């Protein structure tokens, strides 16, 4: 996702048949979405009693995120606005039940029946007005209101989101809190432009048992960019000054370099072979 | 669409009060086996609207469920009941057909097992 697909076309148009296939056959995307889903499931903090739960995957697409739920033994409903994405999910024989629907129209589900919800890389789509009748604030309101109602008390909803800017992040958060949710933002790897991931962790009803913190990079400089806002976990801005975005003193590490080299090789580039010198620091005389 | 989902779905059209359950018009029903998990069934039982499940199962051609929900003791001891519950809830799929709003009669079509719940602009 180099440019922002949300800005190109409405989701049901952007995710047409060819995009749906392209999306699902990219091993890079498959891997990233699986990792994000694992993390979201972890943040859902379901009781550790071995009983499968009945979960919701909002903006489920071709089922990449839902598969993580199945692998962990859960039953799920996936909702998506793109028929093409859902068709790919059917072809891939995902185990969840699929619904074609628009989250911005609210969820037609009974009160208190769902044990938890995840949504991976989808909710930022609601911030765009794709039709003249669309008002992002109202669509977010309808969505979060209906989600709040259908979740059981104490249940959580975890959203991995790519807000375009601070205003979008705040709009999403504000609508969630107004719907009655508690909770806030968890930021993993806040100092890395590439790895940085945001999860909105919401709790329904009872007070959350402290949301665990995001993964931090080792030895980061002191952290003045993360203001405590209304008792939420670090809300920070993506567009921080460049200096801040350079990561830790140790550099990116050997593993990272090896992965990048491998990626480059797969693209057919001529890449130096790996040796014990790979990713070593140069002596200062260089 | 399985009955576990049907049992949770209500009609989302603006202003509709009598929104549950959606009536099922079945054209094609399929069955897919699912691992039997009594813990999950017990967990779900309290959430289920029993009459809607019985009627839903009937409209998919399955008539074994008791008319009245058994008490929770049956969930512990009565395996044959649990098996019926399991089958109705998780193994029957409405593959082709429609869901009909009980108040307005609006039909939501179901194709390849996927209900189309998209609302028209004047229904939002
Ligand atoms: C980047 S994909 C992510 C899909 C899946 N969660 C995954 O991890 O692979 C975003 C999905 O959100 C869906 N989406 C966007 N707006 C939506 C809306 N208003 N209602 C339901 N789904 C929506 C798109 O159709 C698309 O399938």
Name the descriptors:
A: 286 residues; alpha/beta; Rossmann fold; 2 domains; 7-stranded mixed β-sheet; 9 helices; 33% helix; B: alpha+beta; N-terminal domain of TfIIb; 4 strands; binds S-adenosylmethionine
Which small compounds were modeled alongside the protein? S-adenosylmethionine
- Helix fraction bin of chain A: 25-40%
What is the rounded distance between the termini of chain A? 36 Å
Radius of gyration of chain B: 15 Å
Biggest β-sheet strands, sense, barrel of chain B: 4 strands, antiparallel
Give the low-pLDDT segments of chain B: none
Q: Percent of residues of chain B in beta strands?
A: 15-25%
Q: Approximately what portion of the residues of chain A adopt beta-strand conformation?
A: 15-25%
CATH architecture of the largest domain in chain A, by name, is 3-Layer(aba) Sandwich
Find the biggest chain interface: A-B, 33 and 30 residues
Mean pLDDT of chain A: 85
Overall 3D shape of chain B: globular
Architecture (CATH level 2) name of chain B: Single Sheet
User: Oligomeric form of this entry?
Assistant: heterodimer
Number of helices of chain B: 5
The major β-sheet of chain A equals:
7 strands, mixed
Total count of domains of chain A: 2
Please summarize what this structure is.
Chain A is α/β, with parallel strands linked by helices and 286 residues long.
Description:
- The complex is a heterodimer of chains A (286) and B (124).
- By secondary structure, chain A is of the alpha/beta class.
- Chain A folds into two domains: 5-238, Vaccinia Virus protein VP39 (Rossmann fold, 3-Layer(aba) Sandwich), CATH 3.40.50; 246-286, no CATH class.
- Chain A has nine helices and seven strands; from the N terminus they run H-H-H-E-H-E-H-E-E-H-E-H-E-E-H-H.
- Chain A is globular.
- Mean pLDDT of chain A is 85; it is low at 218-245.
- Chain B is an alpha+beta fold and 124 residues long.
- Chain B has a single domain, classed as N-terminal domain of TfIIb (Single Sheet).
- Chain B is 33% helix and 20% strand.
- A four-stranded antiparallel β-sheet of chain B has the order 1-2-3-4.
- Chain B is globular, with a radius of gyration of 15 Å.
- In chain B, 31% of the residues are buried.
- The model of chain B has no long low-confidence stretch (mean pLDDT 97).
- The chains are: A alpha/beta (286), B alpha+beta (124).
- The A-B interface holds A 50-54, 75, 77, 81, 83, 86-87, 90, 97-102, 105-110, 112-114, 131, 133, 142, 146, 150, 152 and B 1-2, 4-5, 7-12, 19-20, 37, 39-40, 43-44, 47, 49, 90, 112-119, 121, 124.
- The complex binds S-adenosylmethionine.
- The site of S-adenosylmethionine has 21 residues of chain A, from helix 4 and strand 2.
- Chain A: Residues 56-158 form the Methyltransferase type domain.
- Chain A: It comes from Eutrema salsugineum (Saltwater cress).
């Amino acid at each position: 996702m180099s440019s922002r697909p949300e800005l190109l076309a409405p989701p049901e148009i952007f995710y047409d048949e060819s995009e749906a296939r392209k999306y699902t056959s990219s091993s890079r995307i498959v891997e990233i979405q699986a990792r994000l889903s694992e993390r979201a499931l972890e943040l859902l903090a379901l009781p550790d009693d071995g009983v499968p739960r009945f979960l919701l995957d909002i903006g489920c697409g071709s089922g990449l995120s839902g598969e993580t739920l199945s692998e962990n033994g859960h039953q799920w409903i996936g909702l998506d606005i793109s028929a093409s994405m859902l068709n790919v999910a059917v072809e891939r024989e995902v185990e969840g039940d699929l619904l074609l629907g628009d989250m911005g129209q609210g969820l037609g589900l009974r009160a208190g029946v769902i044990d938890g919800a995840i949504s991976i890389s989808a909710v930022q789509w609601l911030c765009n007005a794709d039709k003249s009748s669309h008002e992002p604030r109202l669509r977010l309101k309808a969505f979060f209101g209906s989600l709040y109602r259908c979740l059981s008390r104490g249940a959580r909803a975890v959203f991995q989101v790519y807000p375009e800017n601070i205003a979008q992040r705040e709009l999403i958060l504000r609508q969630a809190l107004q719907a009655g949710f508690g909770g806030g933002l968890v930021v993993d790897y806040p100092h890395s432009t590439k790895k940085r991931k945001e999860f909105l962790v919401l709790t329904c009803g009872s007070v959350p048992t402290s949301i665990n913190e995001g993964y931090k990079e080792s030895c980061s400089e002191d952290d003045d960019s993360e203001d405590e806002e209304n008792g939420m976990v670090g809300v920070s801005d993506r567009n921080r000054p460049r200096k801040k975005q350079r990561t830790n003193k140790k550099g990116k590490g050997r593993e990272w370099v090896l992965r990048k080299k491998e990626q480059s090789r797969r693209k057919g580039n001529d890449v130096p072979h790996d040796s014990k010198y790979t990713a070593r620091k140069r002596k200062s005389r260089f | 669409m399985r009955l576990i989902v049907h049992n949770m779905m209500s009609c989302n059209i603006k202003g509709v009060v009598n929104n549950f359950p959606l009536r099922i018009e079945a054209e094609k029903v399929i069955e897919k086996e699912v691992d039997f998990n009594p813990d999950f069934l017990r967990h779900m039982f309290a959430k289920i609207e029993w009459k809607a499940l019985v009627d839903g199962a009937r409209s998919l051609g399955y008539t074994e469920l008791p008319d009245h929900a058994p008490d929770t003791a049956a969930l512990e001891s009565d395996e044959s009941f649990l098996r019926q519950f399991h089958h109705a809830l998780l193994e029957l799929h409405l593959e082709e057909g429609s869901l009909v709003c009980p108040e307005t009669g609006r039909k939501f079509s179901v194709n390849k097992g996927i209900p189309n719940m998209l609302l028209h602009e004047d229904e939002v």
